[in-house]
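Internal ticket - ligand job 340, protoporphyrin IX containing FE:
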Amino acid sequence: MDSEPKLERIPPDESERIAALGQRLKEKVIRDNAGGPIRRDAHPKMHGLVTAEFIIEPDLPGELAVGLFREPGRFPAWIRFSNQDGKLKPDIRRDIRGMAIKLMGVPGEKLLPTEENAPTHDFLTISTDVFVTRDVAEFDDLVKVLTGNLVAQLFFFLTHWRVTWNLIQSMSKFANPLQIRYFSTTPYLLGTRAVKYSVIPHPGPTDTIPAKPGENYLREAMTRQLDREEALFDFCVQVQKGPEEMPVEDPGKRWDESLSPFLKVATIRIPRQTFSTPVRDKLGENLSFTPWHALPEHRPLGGINRGRKIIYDMISAFRHRENEQPRREPAGFDGEDSMD
Ligand code: HEM
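stdout (structure tokens):
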């Protein structure tokens, strides 16, 4: 679109760096999953896949009433909660947690050329408001060094203080994935403007970390809560106010909420349910979330998101092929057991 402001700046070597990173991650998932099924490179440990409803707010002001948010409505959704670590570790370890939302029944052509008719629209969020690196090159350097020796790692962290700091402040312990605030960290279009997303739990009683936490205590906390009551979140957008203070090409920098607060555009309702079942777990394993399952009005922005366009598709295709599992977008909850 000619009228669209130039929000993005693509570094000249970006496509080579994306290809190198993709290859490196593929080799890593092969190593990490030797002898077993191939899991996701990131966020392989699932706490639960739950059914939900995504309810668009009525009477949104014009600047927010764009694309999905144009008019009030309700979309059924799958939501997958996870730990970020590439290996399945006890939940008490410090980590970044994920909340991946997949709306269904969303009309309109989507961005991925191979899945342009998919009825799904995804939002990927994590439990921190800053991503670890500025761009694909820095992320690739980090992945490279993490698979190298300790001296190289020490040198990298001492010479990349912001990566070190972002990592330290992002790795946390939590009591219950249904009671965490989540962020996209990377920006997205909202019509012609850039926004970030945040998912904010409604206030209510909160759990504490058990004195003797079991390996999977986060799943147990979700199970207890959803046995008892529904969980509610606000889905919010933060509109970019200035390219210097709120850069598109650097998700390692927080967009200051005092300059631009998060504004509610939808409610997420997770009804009471029994989700911890083998059928659900298998479906959760076989789903593929990507920020590029999206309408053009909500196109992912910035280098990290451009990298994710290629890499998520590549790793998801690889794990489905290796595990001999079908790879397709769900159309509704009726298909709960149709992806085996
Ligand atoms: C260059 C940067 C990044 C790379 C290379 C990367 C890579 C990946 C890969 C390969 C997967 C698994 C895909 C699949 O097999 O289906 C994944 C999952 C995920 N990523 Fe990223 N990621 C990046 C940045 C981010 C950012 C900025 C976020 C912030 C929201 C994020 C959140 C997630 C979440 C929540 C999942 C799990 C989705 C699910 O539940 O299936 N990632 N990532």
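Auto-summary: The two ends are 41 Å apart (CA to CA). The pocket of protoporphyrin IX containing FE is lined by residues 21, 25, 40-43, 80, 82, 98, 100, 124-126, 131, 136, 139, 184-186, 251, 288-289, 304, 307-308, 311-312, 315-316, 319 (CB under 6 Å).
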